Amino acid sequence: MRVLGQLFKNRTFGAIAVLTLALAMGANIAIFSAVDALLLHPLPYPNPDQLVTVVKNFRRFSRIKVPVSPPEVLDFRDTATCLSSQAAVDTLGTFTLTGGGEPELVPLMHVTASTFPMLGVKPLLGGLFTAEEERFGRNHVAVISDKLWKRRYASAPSIVGKNIEINQESYRVVGVIAPILEYRFAADIWTPLAFSPADLTPQRRGFQYIDVIGRLKPGATIQQARAEFDSIAARLHRQYPAYQQSGFSLDVEPLVEKVAGDLRRPLLVLMGAVGMLALIACVNVSNLLLARGVARRKEIAIRAALGATYDRIVRQLMMESLVLAAVGDAAGLLLALAGLHLYGQFGPPGLMHSARPTLNGWVMAFSTVLSVAASLVFGVAPALETSRVNLNEALKANSHGSAGGRLWLRESLVALEVAVSLVLLIGAGLLVRSFARIEHTSPGFHAQNVLTAELFLPVAEYREPQQITAFQDSLLESVSSLPGVIVAAAADDPMPFSGHFAGGDVEVVGRVARSNQPVPVVFQSRVTPGYFQAMGIPLLRGRYLMPEDNHDAVRVAVIDQTLAERFFPGENPLGRHILTRERLDCAIVGIAGPTKYRDLAAPPEPVIYLSALQSPGPSISLAIRTALDPLMVLSAVRARVAALDPNVPVAHPATMDQRLADSVARQRFSSQLMMAFAGISALLAAIGIYGVLAYVVDQRRRELGIRKALGVPVSNLRGLVLRQGAMPIGAGVVLGIGGAVVLTRVLKSLLYEVSPLDPVIFVSVSLGLVAVALVAILVPSARATQIDPLEALRSE
Question: Are 8 and 14 in contact (CB under 8 A)?
Fold first, then answer.
């Protein structure tokens, strides 16, 4: 308590120091919690380091880390000896749940019975399905999540044994489980993965939609697993010659590396940014302690005169620093907790696929280590400097003492603050400039005033293509008649920037493909007439798809400019024929403008549009262009769908503008965080500069008073203080630019059409920081000109 009382005797000092540390530590703790959740301990399963995923690579098609086909699941199960257990997950999964309330689309996963034991999942209620129930025709059982159980079935224990309707088919509920956090298994309903005889034919080896997860046997290594799956791939090459043409290979990767995905580098960049912020905070507190040490010269001198040893004084001062860091850390924990709560409420959806960041034991341990480290960083120099006192000089009644030793140290710390702040500001400036470039990049279509939504027709009810076409035609005709609707269309595959896509290889009829040439993956979408008008995709040549392009007509396709340039360089594609991924022969009737489907920062990828009237599917993605706010027609669209079939819910409604905004949410969030950290660092640097110059003016008060009494112009006095402040600022800017040149290269992979050495950012940010520093100098320099010579001399 004595230490706390001594430390916070000056309340202004205590408040500024604690707030400075709390901001820096809170940011560090919050970002570390995300690093812990995604990089250090991402999987809440027993022995997560043993979990691996098996993926396929098609180098010739430039496709890597893709799922496997149903026959390959059995190949691995029969031949892989390095795995103690294997699980297979069908990645195609959103289905309609009816009965017990309004119909709704729910995330559903088909998984093998081995999935739950491998992950250590135990039922909260009832049991789990068995391997026997994976047999085709006996797989109508389900496990549901406790979230769905509570929300839709009011936590009724009687749910076990009851039937629920999924896609108009009955499934018996056998158990309820807690949420499975890792996104490859996350769903509300799990049913047995049962392959039909048709799924296991050789022709199905080209359909990749199954994730295979395995657990290594005790003692087995990832290298041994890779070697074994290399041999499995070689055997499949010999057995199925088609694999040789595709450039097929297998790879085994730790599952933990899949969780973070492309968030790894941005997270590490943010961790480095908050580390710099912590360094700036420590420098600032160190400066505060140095200034406070001047006021405590007499106290330290008295302690020394009464017999306190140098070591004991240093320990006392270091203990005060440790207590200050602990208080700042406690406040930082509260700020981090508030920040994580705000992220949960308002953070970009889908930013993290796995568990949300929390203040768990690992984070608390990091917080403790950070607190101790911070106390050492900001406490050692002030403790050593303050404890070195001249007893005779310090005990004089009004002595200010020599500032020289402390001043050069404080100026050095200010230069370090400015340098680190400049690195942060330049990094943030590059990210913001990159994000601005991405936001203003055209996706190739007009996103304004377009409403999108997804429907899924139950296969049990809509078995025939004519039934799907009839529903689709009736719906589009009904929606088109709504007030404010300009045109309504549909696609049978996910819309652009929905997070999903369907793609495969295509071939030009009559052209022999070279086996040594890479083949691009082509996005494939079946669309209704009017889709191009609804999406605002321009027609460059030929014609759009027409109502006459139905199941009785010759199959036709519209390709985009990207596909035309890659497959028909210098040729006219119109009239040529192309084979789709299903080996359908389609005549090219039009060329549309290039579009982006999943990444605004990436070049357009080739797209082929087929007529949904010729081969309709049960999945319908609506695209409705309106003359007013698209969301204003949503309720009317729901009503028109319900009028046609009350068991078909309208899922995932969103404007296309919203989809585009969500697609860059990660970049926006990262740039906003970097800007916030950089802004705080600039503020702390300004406070540090002000503190040093205020200290200088106070220490040179007598000298400045004498200069003023001798007739030195006020402008000269102001210039004296300005020069004193300009030295550390100039040194900091030079160091900061040098550091930014080196460190911003780490950002290269995160930037879009912006150089890591962008001169506009370097110059503008440097000038901006200098301007902030000059503002911090103005107050002390003004105080220097207002010193009364008589008062300054009288105080001596």
Answer: yes
CA distance 154 to 541: 57
- Give the strand pairing for 104-111 and 189-192: parallel
pLDDT per position as a tens digit, 1-24: 455 555 556 666 677 778 888 888
pLDDT at 316 over 70: yes
Given its phi and psi angles, is residue 64 left (phi above 0), alpha (psi -120 to 50 degrees) or beta? beta
Distance CA 59, CA 70 (A): 21
Measured distance CA(449)–CA(301) in Å, rounded: 75
Q: Which two three-digit tokens encode residue 442?
A: 């055209």
Residue 295 has pLDDT above 70, yes or no: no
Q: What is the rounded distance in angstroms from the CA atom of residue 425 to the CA atom of residue 81?
A: 53
Q: State the alpha helices, DSSP H only, in 49-106.
A: 70-79
Which pair of tokens denotes residue 498? 């929905």
- For residue 691 the two structure tokens come to 């503190």
- Which CA distances in Å does 277 have to 64, 246, 789? 38, 50, 41
Its pTM stands at: 0.78
Which parts of 190-263 fold into alpha helices (H)?
Answer: 222-239, 242-246, 255-260
Structure tokens that stand for 184 in this block: 């490859």
CA dihedral 600, 605, 606, 608 (to 10 degrees): -40
pLDDT value of residue 399: 47
**What is the DSSP-derived secondary structure letter of residue 682?**
H
Task: Encode pLDDT of 230-243 as tens digits.
Answer: 999 888 888 887 66
